[in-house]
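Hey everyone, long-time lurker, first post.

I ran two proteins through the pipeline my lab uses and got sequence/structure pairs for each. Pasting them in order. The first:
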Amino acid sequence: MKSLWAHVRAALVLFHLTMIFVIAFPAPIGGMDRSNWKVASVQQDFAAWATLLHVSAASLEDAIYDLAVLYMRGRDAVASPFGPYLRFSGCDQPWRMFVAPVRNIAKLQVQLHVRGAGPDTWETLFEEASAEHQWHKLMFEQERLRSQMARWWWPAFRGVFNESCAYFARLAFAERVDADQVRCRYSLAPSLTPEQARAGVVPQVQYTEPLVHARPPP
């Protein structure tokens, strides 16, 4: 009986290690959303590689996407049998590291509109990395929330961003009886080169399409 258990245990250990090995294959799961490929920093990467390879950026992007689709089909076919055990053991590692260099500084803004004010008059409650606008500072400084804020401006995370903005709106409405709307958006500015930073260049700031939440009727 002991000899049988030794063989069973060895088989289970081998199965577990095989599962870990297969699941560790790189998997651009979230990156398969083509809307993420249109983000400025990603397009800059395609342009840089296209110049190096003497091809057009569009053809390079299409070729890489087709290759990624084939790769993910093969990976899914190999990894899917391990799915039940993976979920049971809790060994999944969903984090994606070293996706691409970030060449745009994205800062979250939460703004409030006061009832009766002009349509373009918004009061900034919170702005990331701002010494002036620090509404609920401790909440926004939490590590888990900061990691989420870093990805909300990507198109694939707009739904989660909208849910989070709705929560911020509920907080603001509870604190400010004069507020009738809350909006959330990101300011985007290109990262400066060392030479530009030393020269005091001010980057041009653009804003994402805001998410607007109105106070619910009483």
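...and the second, right after it:
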Amino acid sequence: MDWQILLENLTTDAILSHLKGVDPVTVATNPYVAGCALLVILGLLFFRMIRTLAVLAGLFALWVAVAYAMPQNNTDVSLESIGIFAGICLGVVGCWIYIFFIRGD
């Protein structure tokens, strides 16, 4: 096994370039991914692992926000995109604050 190729793919630039090439909506509409995600969500709800579910849902929301609110193909950043991105980030952080600090289980 060639470890050099594996280590090159674990650099920050390589990981970001792989993530930029993946569309969140395409991943979410794939039936195999959607089915597995549904099983994970149902399992987390069954075992009442609400905090883990909140982290996963928040990370997915942030991924969608980054994918669609940031400029693509060397275009300028619009104020509307910044507002949408900031609103999603504030919503995710607010949900996490509620789940982790305010809500009493």
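Reply from user beta_strand_b:
Welcome! Quick read of the second one: The chain is about 80% helix and 0% strand. Residues 3-102 form one domain.
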